[in-house]
Amino acid sequence: MIEISNVCKEYSEGNKALKNVTITVEDGEFVFIMGRNGSGKTTIFKLLMKEEELTSGKIVVNDMNLGKMPRSYVPKYRRRLGVVFQDFRLLNDRNVYENVAFAMRVVGASSRRIRESVPEMLQMVGLSAKYKMFPHQLSGGEQQRVAIARALINRPEVLLADEPTGNLDSHNAMEIMKLLEEINEMGTTVIVVTHSHEIVEKMHKRVIRMERGCVISDETEYADEAAAEDEDDFEYEEEEAGDDDEEETGSVAEGGNIYED
Description:
The protein is α/β, with parallel strands linked by helices. It is 30% helix and 27% strand.
């Protein structure tokens, strides 16, 4: 279970990315967190990854209090997460097989286990025939499938996906979402951060909508009328520091996922 209780995140005085946010996600749920740039959705993502520290409140993930977690334990915690990013973050000098195997090598898996597990995972994501190909030889949808395989290879309890369809066309976007749904049906808790009404409308899952750092609705099934809102009716302040679309550089590997410094 994931419990986010009265969480606030302030990047500078008066610049509040989250304001008393409370969200509970049960084991095995599939949840979308929606919102425009600056709404706070990516800040939640970063807090769950322990990329950012909360200002106040409490976050508990599977009985682990993230606010009290020592930095030395963070890599071990991240091994229990699968993380998928919009920009794939594949290793361009390694083929499909090696990209997925890399996640197992990071956690010290044996060569035998890697040889057994990687082909099974590639079959699951539909890439068995392309295991020797390099990222530049794949379509965007195929690259995202590799990223999902890498995120799942160590059998995480929770899969976090940050705009996983943002760089894909509509067809590939839905294929990726169907794959995430299949993963969820096998018992993995899935949380997807997105701003796509189209994707959410078609999936019929629980949707948490955010605006200016606050939860404004939490629906067990997406209401179609929400997709019809005229976005021009709303004016939003500039994106708050540290939230969506900020430029980041550098990456390190922890727990088989690729994280930003």
